[in-house]
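Protocol step 4 of 5: obtain the predicted structure for the target chain.
Materials: sequence only (see below). No template structures provided, no constraints applied. The aim of this step is simply to have a reference model before the mutagenesis design in step 5. Sequence pasted as it appears in the construct record:
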Amino acid sequence: MASTPREAPDDQAAKPLLAVLKGERRDPPPVWMMRQAGRYLPEYRELREARGGFLDLVYDSDAAAEITLQPLKRFALDAAILFSDILIVPFALGQNLTFVGGEGPRLTPQLATTPLDKLTPVPARLDPIYATVARVKAQLEPAKALIGFAGAPWTVATYMVAGQGSRDQSETRLLAYRDSGAMQALVDRIVATTVDYLCGQIDAGADAVQLFDSWAGSLAPVEFERWAIAPTAAIVDAVRARRPGVPIIGFPKGAGGKLGAYARETRVDAVGLDETVDPRWAHRELPGDLPVQGNLDPLALRAGGDHLARSVAAILDAFAQRPHIFNLGHGILKETPIAHVDELMAIVKGAR
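Step 4 output (structure tokens):
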């Protein structure tokens, strides 16, 4: 996909989220929520009932664009995040992708038993995602940012090897120990496709991109360096070289004490924090000018009331002196009452 002109710096500054990603402190902080487009919204459930299953919606660019924009019609969010899935990359690399009701995604053939070179890439499977980005961008208010995303290589690899999600990612961890060459070849393939994929989203209109490393926390320290930090750094360097000026957010869920190394060595523009990270510790340990994103416990949002108010206040106080994007520590839960999201927005935006 050919590159398109990017917004001028003054245009970027008009979007609060992009200003923070560039290192500016904004009060109140910009807000978006991981999985903000999805199952907790009745309008999403209605559309899914009418249009078909999850993957059908992802590949229907009109429907996916509508779903991406749904939460912004309800809440004063500062960004839309593309409605898609991290397993689109394995799908483009040649695995078959299905979603089993009540169980989750399935990829075949599993790379635990099938060599990587048996897969035939199908890069055209990425094209409908770019079409969704373009449709959203055309409808988005000027002050709102559009976030594209991909799964980080380690997390994507865990699904490709096992064929599905797992509790401890043991099959992929064993592969990394027993045959690091095969694991490296898989990760390199994911890195290359992810760079193309993120650049394609940027060309279609994404203002920033996020890498989700949802299973980074399962890695031992040395393995974390090789399979979480190094591939992410390779993606950051390549995207930055090809599409300079576009912010990249890294979200290594479960990284804990390895967050400082992750931030320094990947050179992401901002780090997302999961709900287990003490925000005061993060403010103390991370580089002082690094924007951070997070990190409300999704269950605190589901609970609402005093727990929600206290948790939000603690996060805002901890990050009062650094660039901060308010977000959850992971995806919003489908059982979350919409009234609690209204309550959250009122607190963060200063209405309460």
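Step 4 remarks: The CA atoms of residues 256 and 277 lie 6 Å apart. Residues 1-5 have pLDDT under 50 and may be disordered.
Proceed to step 5.
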